[in-house]
Amino acid sequence: MIELWERFGYYGMQALIVYFMVQRMGFEDSRANLVWGAAAALIYVAPAIGGWIGDKVLGTKRCMVLGAMILSLGYALMAVPTTNTWFLFSALGVIVVGNGLFKPNTANLVRKIYEGDDSKIDSAFTMYYMAVNVGSTFSMLATPAIKDYFNAAHGNEIGWHVAYGVCSVGLVIGVLTLLMMRATIRHVGSLPDERPLDKGKLAMVLGGGVLAVGLSAVILQYQSIARVFVYLAGIVVLGIFVHLIRKSEPSERAGLIAALVLTLQTVFFFIFYQQMSTSLSLFALRNVDLEFNVLGAHLWTWSPAQFQALNAIWIMVLSPVLALVYTRAGRTGKDLSIAGKFALGFTVVAAGFFTYGFAGQFAVNGLTSSWIMIAGYGLYSLGELLVSGLGLAMVARYVPARMGGFMMGAYFVATGISQYLGGVVANYASVPQGMTDPLQTLPIYTSLFNKLGIAAVICTLIALSVLPLMRRLTATHSSHQ
């Protein structure tokens, strides 16, 4: 439940942020894509530190609560009606710190509840992923509508900030939900959770958080620094992975190598994922007919930002089905390996991007049908469940418990790196300022989507080629359990 409300806040903000920078702050497409790519990277890199703080310093449950409170403050700052660049970047920095404390520790608690039962872990994380999408669906439908309503009533200013304020309220509800239901997780947590709170350590964590906010703002302001930071983070995480594999017990090594291979595949997946809030989002703004019609009859009209909710809606539809399939297949010994699910996932993602790429064939005056977006998002979302939905389960299955928090964090760092790379890729479809003709912008977007479809096919072939290696590593890992 707390994950549901935290994602309500995060995705409510994500639905608007690129539009906010382009339409409200006057950024070019290329700057908006890279700023959001860098912010998403920081948001996902921060859990590497937050997971360690949860494991060793403050405790998993305490970090979860503290992170939710800081996130609420971050969204509240975005609700302040200003277009000052440094203020926006500082607010995003607060969100980076809050997410760093919240995200890995919440996922680690799920892992601790179901530890030791692989099929249940796969099902649990799939349902956990569904909770993520329940929250994000409501917020991605609500915040654009709230923004449009208040902008229409009070001018093109206040609506953006009212919507961000709603994101902050979501986090407050999440904290209250946790306080009411805290008895249900009393038996799980890390060692520091069992000890009295060390106020000195808490002060150090908060002080470090303030410094991290300032550093984040600088990174977002200066793209050259962002680029160096993201690539350096990738080198550091890869180095730590290699070090842990070399220093681990022989019985743990095969599992860690398997986790590394799957993490590298996840990096490629999230480059595709980042297109939803960048190139696909701007495509919906400029080249999609916002009316849903059937046989000439009008059903409803969406705001461009609301199309991002299709991802979450499809995942809510597909998650229970996949969770049931995994559990039944586990009982009969016919479950596909995680590596096999990754390969299948990339295939479906490729089909989704080719669907967007072919959108130009059905366009009228440069505008393609909303139903193309529904079909593309449906295929993409199934691929996401098969790859990203099982990424956390992969860490839970292959990584020793004593490294759980850190490895959850390392997984998110890999995700963050690919979020930034996704922003870089999205810039191949940057539309020059002033270009408003849909007939001119359409081929810019469809060209990128077709190239992404080809890239996903290549990822599928790579995933298939490493299947024999993954089978050997999984067999070795299982024999030492």
From TrEMBL:
Claim: Transcription is one of the keywords in the record: no
A Pfam family: PTR2
GO biological process: tripeptide transmembrane transport
Key word Membrane present: yes
Subcellular location, record wording: Cell membrane
Gene Ontology cellular-component terms listed: plasma membrane
TM stretches of this protein: 34-54, 63-80, 86-102, 123-146, 158-181, 202-222, 228-245, 254-273, 305-326, 338-359, 371-396, 408-429, 449-470
Protein name, UniProt field: MFS transporter
Organism: Massilia litorea
Upper classification of the organism: Bacteria, Pseudomonadati, Pseudomonadota, Betaproteobacteria, Burkholderiales
